[in-house]
Structure prediction request, 94 residues.
Amino acid sequence: MPLEYADPYRAFYMMRLQAMRFGSYPTEIQRSEDGTTTQQLTDGTTIQLTIDHDTMTWMLARFFHEQGKMIVLYQEHGTYDDSEYDEDTGEYIP
Prediction:
């Protein structure tokens, strides 16, 4: 079931909620300077949000690793507009 949100942070949040609905809970979150946010879940999967500020695009994926291979369970791509975010807080302005 596609999430299809215009706001990448909302899509990330909704994917976490959907995972928790089925009994998988977030354990740790990591943010890198290149715009990638990664969160591990208790079922062994990972949710990753990658934002490219140069092209104004984002990619959200849920995946796991098995025998050295990355198995993608869900992937979504989108574009966003920086003008929709507050410069000071980074929060989405509807």
